[in-house]
Every structure is written in C-alpha cells, then in structure tokens.
Amino acid sequence: MIAFCCCCCVSFKTRIFFDSFESCFYVIVIHSFGILIGACVIFKQLFSRDVRVRSQVGFEPERRGSHPYLGVDFRTLHTRAESAGTIPARRIRRLFSFQRHLLSSRLLRGAPQLNPLHILDEDYCGQAKCMLERVGSWNFDIFLFDRLTNGNGLVFLTFNLLNQYGLIELFQLDMVKLRRFLVLVQEDYHNQNPYHNAVHAADVTQAMHCYLREPKLAESLTSFDILLGLLAAATHDLDHPGVNQPFLIKTNHYLAALYRNTSVLENHHWRSAVGLLRETELFSSLPAEDSLSIERQLGSLILATDISRQNEYLSRFRTHLDENDLCLGNASHRHFVLQMALKCADICNPCRPWELSKQWSEKVTEEFFHQGDIEKKHKLEISPLCDSEANTIASVQIGFMTYVVEPLFAEWARFSDTRLSQTMLGHLGLNKASWSAMEPEASGSSEEGESEPGRATEEPSSRVLSQGSQES
Ligand SMILES: *[C@@H]1O[C@H](CO)[C@@H](O)[C@H](O)[C@H]1NC(C)=O
Ligand SMILES: *[C@@H]1O[C@H](CO)[C@@H](O)[C@H](O)[C@H]1NC(C)=O
Ligand SMILES: [Zn+2]
C-alpha cells in the first residue's frame, strides 16, 4: 500500500505533489486502521483535486499557476542560478514538516489547545513558539519567523492568528481543509520573487493583526470582519508574477485583456483566492449566501490595495475624518476601515524598524530592477523606478515614502491616534532620514544643477504611484 502510494506521488507534477502526499498520508492512516474502503474515496479525491472548481454563480475563479509572457514562465522569472539546485530539497523538507504537521493536527482534532508548532524540529519549535507570544509586536521579525518555521511562516502565522481570535471554533472550520487552504495559499506565492512572495503576505497579515488590535477596531469589529481582514491580508498578492501592471499591458498579457487593463493584478489575486476557497471548500459548511459574501468582500478588500486608486480612498478617508462621521456600528463603514487597514498593512514597510525596513527596501528594488532588466533585454520602454542605472534604493524609497506612505499614515494616525501610530510615524521619519543621508542629491534641496533625467525628482507623484502599483 505504502509503496504504491509513493509511486503515485512521484508520477504527479510538482504542483500537486504536496496534495498527493497529503492524500498518501491519509491512505497510510486508513491502512493502519484497516479501513480499506476509505482508500477508494481518497484516491477519487486525489484525482479530482487538480480540477479547478468553477463558478456557477458570481465570479469566475481563476486557474492557478504559471502564466507565460514573452515565452517566459512567471514561476522561473526570478529564479537565480545559485538557488536553482536548492529548491527541490527545500520543497521536500517543507513537505515532510507539513506531513508531520498534518499527523499532529489530525490526532489533535477536537483538542481544545491547538498548537501548530509542535511538529517542527525541537530547537526551532521553541524559538518560533516563543516569537508567536509577541505576534502583536510591531518589531516582529517576520524574516526570522519564516526561517524558524522552515519557510512556512505564512501558514503558521495565519493559522495561529485564526486560532487566537477563536475563529476556527466560531466558524467551525474543518482543520484539514483549513490547513490545506493555507498551504495552497503559501505555495501559490512565487518564492522566486525577491519581494512579492509569501513572506510579504505573512508580513502584511502580521501588520493587519496589529491594526485589528487597535482599540477603535478591536471594540467594533465583528468576528466576520476579523476573519475577512486576516484572509484578505494573507491572499492579497496571491500568484503575483513579480512584474507590475504596465508590464502586463505592454506585453499583451492575457490577464491585462481579461481585466481590461484595470486593477489587473489585484483582480487576479482575488480570483485566485476565490479559486482556492472553492477548491478546498473551506466555507462549505456556511450558508451559500455567507460564503458568497466572504468572496465578494474579500474582493473589495484586495482591490483596495491597488495603489493607483490610493487618492480615491485617501480622500474618502479624509472626508470622513474631517466630518467625523465614521460610525463603526455601520457594517459598510467598518468595511471601509478594513480597506484602509489593509492598505496600510500592505505598504507599512517604511514604518517598521530600520533593520526590517531596510531589508524590504532592498527586496522591492531588486524586483523593480529585475523588471527593468527584462524590459531592456526585450527592447521595451523601461518602467519608472525600474532602471538600475537611473535609480538607487534610496531614491526609490524617498519618493515612495514622501508621496505614498506619509500621506496614508498621517490620516491613519488621525483616525487611530495610538502609541502604535506614533511609533510607525516615528520609524517612517527616521528611515527616511537614513535613506536621505545616503542620497544627498535626492533630498530636494540640491541646487547643483545635475538634474539627471529619470530621477525621482521629476513628476514624483505619478512615478511613485506606478511604483506603488507594484509594491502593493
Ligand atoms: C489595454 O491597453 C492596451 C495598450 O494601451 C490597448 O492596446 C488595449 O486595447 C487595452 N485593452 C482594453 C480592454 O482596454
Ligand atoms: C451605513 O452607512 C452607509 C454609507 O454611509 C449608509 O448608506 C447606510 O444607510 C448606513 N446604514 C445604517 C444602518 O446606518
Ligand atoms: Zn502586497
């Protein structure tokens, strides 16, 4: 039984390798309990899993995975030569840790204290568990957490938060379905992307958690709002190709046509998330109208992260604050606040302590410059901020902070005037000063006359906005 099982695993493509291992595991469990009849059902499920659940009502979820452009596969876009050999090994390690994970979760099903970490190697386990005790801290080091969880940071963090808020119990979420959903979400991020990968998603989810705990939100949000906020954060960049919308448009990518050049990536992230929700049937026990409402609201939250629409959201927010008419007893106002919270979480990198913030800056710039290199290679116009010869990490960051991050967080601090908001603005100021010190000519006061075309000083607003659409 076990031998057959392993053969079937090997014959599957990597994409469903993970799933089949999960199924194999069931088979082993079933076998050991002598209930062979279950195996047929399991195998049937195994073969139907690769089929995307298609919508009967409402939105079409999208197929998962690689979308070629210019004959290049998205998934290999950011593969670096030195990491190529290590990916299979990493995958397998993660696979095994997931398998142990599943074992423990199945054995523990129904146990009151759900602990997702005890299957990890002992030494890492202790440290990761220890970190989770301070998961609401603004200094939380998501890079370290991701390493300690063997690259499973998004799964562990999201699971832990859902559990901590009591949402698993409240919504009667099936542990196996939930686990599978989170693993698929994590796997649908492209780990080859320097920036838009599962660690960014985990970081945004952690930031979202910090905002959900702010007094104004904590006392008004419903469990449903919190569930949506966390799910939206975890899935908001799902299957991000590592290039921005203008790139997809100018290379005639089919997603650009599908979404009519509008919020192309955000629509894709949303539909991909809906696809995974349906595939895993995570909310199948909820009434159909509730799960449809989750899908719809998830979309409205994820679409709000389109940075090219920032002004629209920001001026609405400003108007509410000026007129002091946000009423958090009203569901549509709460939803709007969640949209703003997710927007903040998505671009909060410059508000983190320097050591964390700096790493994000390096990663996002690496991704931009990589896009610029592809554009150069294919003789396409080089997108703003993507030309490594015309920009530096510092110039990109200073523009982004000045025109995108500062205005948003200034309003957020007006809405939620707490110690966290002051901390974030404090880091923002310090980080900007640090980058400015490295980039004296970009500080705006230079009159040396070396106005290089393509610098961040020219048309800063639109240039930075187009960067943002990639950073979101
Ligand atoms: C999207 O933009 C491209 C390039 O500007 C254009 O050729 C195409 O017609 C646009 N598609 C839609 C649906 O507007
Ligand atoms: C909630 O707010 C929306 C938008 O401002 C408004 O249209 C709606 O009437 C409000 N609902 C209630 C119950 O006050
Ligand atoms: Zn993002």
UniProtKB/TrEMBL annotation:
<feature type="domain" description="PDEase">
    <location>
        <begin position="120"/>
        <end position="442"/>
    </location>
</feature>
<feature type="compositionally biased region" description="Polar residues">
    <location>
        <begin position="463"/>
        <end position="472"/>
    </location>
</feature>
<keyword id="KW-0479">Metal-binding</keyword>
<dbReference type="GO" id="GO:0046872">
    <property type="term" value="F:metal ion binding"/>
</dbReference>
<feature type="region of interest" description="Disordered">
    <location>
        <begin position="436"/>
        <end position="472"/>
    </location>
</feature>
<dbReference type="InterPro" id="IPR002073">
    <property type="entry name" value="PDEase_catalytic_dom"/>
</dbReference>
<dbReference type="GO" id="GO:0007165">
    <property type="term" value="P:signal transduction"/>
</dbReference>
<feature type="binding site">
    <location>
        <position position="237"/>
    </location>
    <ligand>
        <name>Zn(2+) 2</name>
    </ligand>
</feature>
<dbReference type="InterPro" id="IPR023088">
    <property type="entry name" value="PDEase"/>
</dbReference>
<feature type="binding site">
    <location>
        <position position="237"/>
    </location>
    <ligand>
        <name>Zn(2+) 1</name>
    </ligand>
</feature>
<keyword id="KW-0812">Transmembrane</keyword>
<feature type="transmembrane region" description="Helical">
    <location>
        <begin position="25"/>
        <end position="47"/>
    </location>
</feature>
<dbReference type="GO" id="GO:0004115">
    <property type="term" value="F:3',5'-cyclic-AMP phosphodiesterase activity"/>
</dbReference>
<feature type="binding site">
    <location>
        <position position="346"/>
    </location>
    <ligand>
        <name>Zn(2+) 1</name>
    </ligand>
</feature>
<comment type="similarity">
    <text>Belongs to the cyclic nucleotide phosphodiesterase family. PDE7 subfamily.</text>
</comment>
<feature type="binding site">
    <location>
        <position position="397"/>
    </location>
    <ligand>
        <name>AMP</name>
    </ligand>
</feature>
<dbReference type="InterPro" id="IPR003607">
    <property type="entry name" value="HD/PDEase_dom"/>
</dbReference>
<dbReference type="InterPro" id="IPR023174">
    <property type="entry name" value="PDEase_CS"/>
</dbReference>
<feature type="compositionally biased region" description="Low complexity">
    <location>
        <begin position="436"/>
        <end position="446"/>
    </location>
</feature>
<feature type="binding site">
    <location>
        <position position="236"/>
    </location>
    <ligand>
        <name>Zn(2+) 1</name>
    </ligand>
</feature>
<keyword id="KW-1133">Transmembrane helix</keyword>
<dbReference type="Pfam" id="PF00233">
    <property type="entry name" value="PDEase_I"/>
</dbReference>
<protein>
    <recommendedName>
        <fullName>Phosphodiesterase</fullName>
        <ecNumber>3.1.4.-</ecNumber>
    </recommendedName>
</protein>
<feature type="compositionally biased region" description="Basic and acidic residues">
    <location>
        <begin position="452"/>
        <end position="461"/>
    </location>
</feature>
<keyword id="KW-0378">Hydrolase</keyword>
<feature type="active site" description="Proton donor">
    <location>
        <position position="196"/>
    </location>
</feature>
<feature type="binding site">
    <location>
        <position position="237"/>
    </location>
    <ligand>
        <name>AMP</name>
    </ligand>
</feature>
<feature type="binding site">
    <location>
        <position position="346"/>
    </location>
    <ligand>
        <name>AMP</name>
    </ligand>
</feature>
<feature type="binding site">
    <location>
        <begin position="196"/>
        <end position="200"/>
    </location>
    <ligand>
        <name>AMP</name>
    </ligand>
</feature>
<feature type="binding site">
    <location>
        <position position="200"/>
    </location>
    <ligand>
        <name>Zn(2+) 1</name>
    </ligand>
</feature>
<dbReference type="InterPro" id="IPR036971">
    <property type="entry name" value="PDEase_catalytic_dom_sf"/>
</dbReference>
<keyword id="KW-0114">cAMP</keyword>
<comment type="pathway">
    <text>Purine metabolism; 3',5'-cyclic AMP degradation; AMP from 3',5'-cyclic AMP: step 1/1.</text>
</comment>
<keyword id="KW-0472">Membrane</keyword>
